Amino acid sequence: MPWVQIRLNSNDKHAENIGEVLEQLGSVSVTFVDSQDTPVFEPLPGETRLWGNTDVIALFDAETDMQHIVAELTAQHILSCDVSYKIEQIEDKDWEREWMENFHPMQFGKRLWICPSWRPVPDESAVNVMLDPGLAFGTGTHPTTALCLKWLDGLDLAGKTVIDFGCGSGILAIAALKLGAKQAIGIDIDPQAILASRDNAERNGVAERLQLFLAKDQPQDLQADVVVANILAGPLKELAAPIIALLKPNADLGLSGILANQASSVCEAYQSKVRLEPITEQDEWCRITGVRF
After folding, report:
1. Which domain holds residue 78?
2. Could you tell me the end-to-end alpha-carbon distance of the chain, in angstroms, rounded to an integer?
3. Per-residue pLDDT tens for 27-64?
4. Same domain, 280 and 179
5. Exposed / middle / buried, residue 15 (Cβ in 10 Å: 0-12, 13-18, 19+)
6. Does residue 142 sit in the same domain as residue 78?
7. Is 97 part of a structural domain of the chain?
8. Do the annotations mark residue 161 as ligand-binding?
9. Is 145 marked within a binding site?
10. Is 257 labelled as part of a ligand binding site?
């Protein structure tokens, strides 16, 4: 089905209201996009956090009378000298199939491969994680996930318990298990992440060694030999105390989802309890690692 979209340049004060109006006018989806490509901190549970300068993008059926939409937005005083807009035709594509065709097996470190189930495994003797995450969760293609996978590949995980804090697709927890960890625990605030992690664990034959918890339901005394958290700099700083509490003495910590220019402030939140190691960078993103005192 072909589509047409309208993009309105707004700000964090008005974006949500504009989005609600566009939905009332028949939009099938509304997306908020940072119009200045500014890094965004992941919102905490129950919080909606928008950017300082925000584009609101609404998708409509191609048969929609967009002049009527513009007239309604003008009548409701949304379009003004402070809000510009652009209407664009969107090419009709099978987006899921296109994404699948572009997702290839990828190697991380010396032993680990992340492989989509619809493609042949390049090396049967390697540690292969079969991943069908859908479009919403991590696949290893982003530098932050790649940094974490390479780090896990370099650890001796034999007999250890690993916590994946903010597990998403479960890619890091599952990789840890296939790299030799005795047990892994995935924690996330999103129920869909728990479902995706469970499905991927079953596909990889490690479900019996993976425990999954919503953050609000995790055990109070939970601790592990290795903790990896690939979220974003804001939550990593705000949640430093509970993340540190997950570390056993001498446990390894890996943090990512951090832009290089944010690294120093994240380090400050952990350095009193964690002996930090040199920062590793990849494509403007970085990984912070260390060992619990």
Report:
1. 3-90
2. 57
3. 998 888 876 555 444 444 555 555 557 889 999 988 89
4. yes
5. buried
6. no
7. no
8. no
9. yes
10. no
